Amino acid sequence: MTTLHAATANSVGLNLSLMCREPVFTSRSAQETQRLMRQVLVEHELEWPRGGVDTAFYRGQVASCELYALRYGGLVEIRPQPFEDFVLVQMPLRGSATLESDGMSYGVSPGEVAILSPREQARVVWEEGCEQLILKLPLALIEASQQALADDLPSGFTLAPVSRLQRPLAMRWFRLVSELLEHLPEGEASVAPSRWLQHLEQSLPLFLLSHCGVAQQDSPAPRQPTRQLQKIDACMREHLVQGITLAELAVATGVSIRSLNTLCQREYGQSPMDRLRGLRLEAAREYLLARPHASVTEVALEFGFGHVGRFANYYRQRFGELPKQTMKSQA
Hints:
The protein is an alpha+beta fold. It has 2 domains: 25-218, Jelly Rolls; 227-330, Homeodomain-like (Arc Repressor Mutant, subunit A, Orthogonal Bundle). It contains 11 helices and 10 strands. It has helices at 30-40, 139-148, 169-181, 195-218, 227-238, 246-253, 257-268, 272-290, 296-302, 308-319, 323-330; strands at 25-27, 44-62, 65-80, 86-94, 97-101, 104-108, 113-116, 122-126, 131-138, 162-165. A hairpin with a 2-residue loop joins strand 2 (44-62) and strand 3 (65-80). The longest helix has 24 residues, at 195-218. The chain starts with 24 loop residues before the first strand and ends with a helix. One of its GO terms (cellular component) is cytoplasm.
């Protein structure tokens, strides 16, 4: 059982080394994982449709904010009950996740942020190997910030059940979180918040409310998954090890090139070929983790990267480390 791969090397520049010195728990049991996670968050159901259970959970607290670093291992589906006194901010460090609640759905990958505040049922899916940093923001902080922004927010504004921050906005958010991580206590004893830390703590919900409020005004219609998107995603995954052009992808999914670009930009914040490359990189990483003695050149070629140097560069940009470093961590 391994520690979090993304604790010190991830594409968003967050250093979790202080937080991830010792896990709260690790487990290969689905029942134990569900029982322990229910104690931390809310009543929820966990299912592993694919892949084994390899849970690693770390926890830290700064003032009234709780931070969790978490991996489940295999593909996991989470169905939490509505939150009553907090909001969860999920930040993938490795791999991707999909969040659905109250008819809204967003996919997030490293470099993006999802804000989950379900009022009814929710469904969250973490892909195999997904690792995330999660911030638990007390509802009291959110409400205080909402009052402070009363003149700037639309009348009757509430946080959407699911919201998403993309680059470059998400990178500004990560700078706030990075500062928060630097205030993690060294030992068990908690320290009274300084004036600066109080300001930082208040800045977190102010940032989310300000920018999620703007997003809601600009885009009143929530984005929902469509059959076209499902077909596009399935087609991409079928071609992880085969070459396919943009035009061929459009023909295979039954849409025009323009529509394909629009759908991918709207749902993933990426062009179709960037999305496909990201899926190939994730598949290559999973392969390397499972086979630490494989040849990097062979893996690059296996997943459609004809130039090994470019593969290594793309890989480092996405995961914060070179392929050889990934293999050494498993050796």
